[in-house]
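Dear colleagues,

I hope this message finds you well. In preparation for our joint manuscript, I am sending the Transposase (Allocatelliglobosispora scoriae) sequence together with its predicted structure, so that both groups work from identical material. I would be grateful if you could confirm receipt.
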Amino acid sequence: MGRPPQFPVEDKLRIVLSVLSGEMTIVEAARRNQTSEQSIGRWKQQFLEGGKAGLAEGGRVVDNPRERALQEQIDELTSALGEAHVELRVWKKSAEYRLAPSRTSR
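The corresponding structure tokens are as follows:
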């Protein structure tokens, strides 16, 4: 027995949405698309979990550990850049004050 055919993401999405909208049952979708009910049920569950995670994270899904680490690094660097910007402004103001002509030199 060979491996079942791979379905493109677009096809899986179309099938899952037709099941969720009530256009057809999982059994009908499996029969029409020549796949198992278990596959369609798994696709449906994956779709719903992905949507749930997207809503919980404010639209950002970060399940990949590498992506999570990179996002933490971005946040850390953004914070450091903000602090450096504030320090630079303080130094500039301090330098302007020290280099300004004194009132007694007139």
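For the figure legend, we might mention the following. DSSP finds four helices and no strands in the chain. The chain has a mean pLDDT of 86.

With kind regards,
E.M.
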